[in-house]
Prior knowledge:
37% helix; five-stranded antiparallel beta sheet
Amino acid sequence: MRYLITxxxxxxxxxxxxxxxxxxxxxxxxxxxxxxxxxxxxGERQRMAQAPYQLDRDEQSITLExxxxxxAHRGWHLLAVHVRTSHVHTVVEADVRPExxxxxxxxxxxxxxxxxxxxxxxxxxxxxxxxxxxxxKDDDVRHAVKYVVEEQGERLALFVSADL
Length: 164
C-alpha cells in the first residue's frame, strides 16, 4: 500500500494555532486543517512539557538519511521525502500499516539525532501523532508527491525517487 505520512516536530503545529494542524476530524484527503482557535492553542501550549523543537539544516539532513535508512532496511519503497524545519512529509510504499511506518520513521530519526549529542536524552522531538493517508490510486500518489516536492516552499532536505 502507498501512503502520505506527515509528522510534526514537538510543539510546532498545535491544534488551534494559526499555522494549521490536522486532527482526527481533519485528516481526509482534501479536508481543511483545524481552524485557528487561540484559546485551544494556548491550552495546548500550557500543557507542553518542553519548548517546541525545530530542525536546523544538519538535523534535517540527518532525519532524511534516517528515513532513507529505515526504508531500505524494511524493504519499503520511498517515493518522496521533504524534511522541513517543523515537520516531515513522506510518500512511501510499504507492506505494513501506515502507523508502523510512521513510528519507525520517528524512532530511526530520533536515534540518529540522539547521536549528535545536542539535546538531553529525554528531548521530545515529535508530536505524539501524525497524519497517515492511504493513497489508493496512482493519481493520488502523483498528487501527493507533487505536494511533498513542489508545494512546501523552499526546498530543504529533499529526496525524490528516480522511479517517478
